[in-house]
Amino acid sequence: MTTDDTPSRGTVGVVIVGAGRGMRMGGMDKVFAPILGLSMIAYSLKTFAMMREVNSIALVLSEKRLREARRLATAFGMGKVKAMCGGGERRQDSVRAGLEALGECDWVAVHDAARPLVDGRLVLRGLKAAAETGAAVCAVPVKDTIKVVSDDGAVLETPPRETLWQVQTPQIFRYETLMKAHQECNGDFTDDAAMVESLGVEVKVFFGSYRNVKVTTPEDLSVAEALMTRPGTSAAL
Q1: Is residue 118 part of a domain?
Q2: Is the pLDDT of residue 235 over 60?
Q3: Model pLDDT for residues 43-97, shown as the tens digit of each residue
Q4: Could you please report the per-residue DSSP string of 109-123?
Q5: Whole-number Å distance between alpha carbons of 101 and 42
Q6: Are 15 and 109 in contact (CB under 8 A)?
Q7: How many domains are contained in the chain?
Q8: Does 236 fall in a domain?
Q9: Is 47 part of a structural domain of the chain?
Q10: Phi-psi group of 52: left, alpha or beta (phi > 0 → left; psi -120 to 50 → alpha; rest → beta)
């Protein structure tokens, strides 16, 4: 559904990134791993495709999976998948390839295909938050105490837990801001928000979901499946 929370009622594009090597999955291309009989990527693809606020989608995957991705786009993309491309050496290279393939829009959401339980309400919160500064990231407060540790295993400090958030995706930006970050920022970055932060842009945090898990290991597949089959969930297709 469309709401007044959509930033400036501009066009919204989505880059779904799933071109990783799956080293912690034993070399498996995890975004095509089956969950309840469907490839993992099908879940986030359908979530974004069903949103009226989303105008276009680009899929960034390993080159050898593009043919299979076309079948998924036909089945679940609702005509919104405008581009597909292979990924790069680093995640940030894959995101830039997706941005270029997607083409200009007012807002772009970058989402990891390995987070299949994203839902539309979460995305709408992100669009509203992004309207404030032009950049917003999905996150949840950490539950555990965090220690900063030296190379030799000594505790250096214990940051206040209430200031620490665990970042997820989607991350939502003005398209021109994120593209500028990818064009101008050197070095390696762990996420797109860090690149945008380096430009001096304020990044807002919006509340994500503890259900919005990232599948990294084979055990995580079982966790995602269990969450999808809980009573009241809308994640299962």
Answers
A1: yes
A2: no
A3: 999 999 999 999 999 999 999 999 999 999 999 999 999 999 999 999 999 999 9
A4: EEEETT-TT--HHHH
A5: 20
A6: yes
A7: 1
A8: no
A9: yes
A10: alpha
Per-residue confidence (pLDDT) for residue 124, from 0 to 100: 97
Give the Cα separation of 60 and 85 in Å (integer): 5
**What is the pTM assigned to this prediction?**
0.91
The runs of H, that is alpha helices, within 117-163 are 120-133
CA 64 – CA 70 distance, rounded (Å): 12
Average pLDDT across the chain, whole number: 91
Dist. CA 132–CA 228, nearest whole Å: 32
Strands (E), the chain: 12-18, 34-35, 38-39, 56-61, 81-86, 107-112, 135-141, 148-149, 155-157, 165-174, 204-207
- Print the domain residue range for 110: 7-137+169-228
Q: Which of 194, 185, 133, 198 is nearest to 167 (CA)?
A: 194
Domain containing residue 31: CATH number: 3.90.550.10
Q: For Cα atoms 205, 181, 121, give the angle at the middle one, nearest 5 degrees.
A: 30
For residues 4 and 189, what is the distance between their CA atoms, to the nearest angstrom?
Answer: 33
Q: How many CB atoms lie within 10 A of CB 73?
A: 23
Q: Has residue 21 been placed in a domain?
A: yes
> How confident is the model over 226-235, as a mean pLDDT?
73
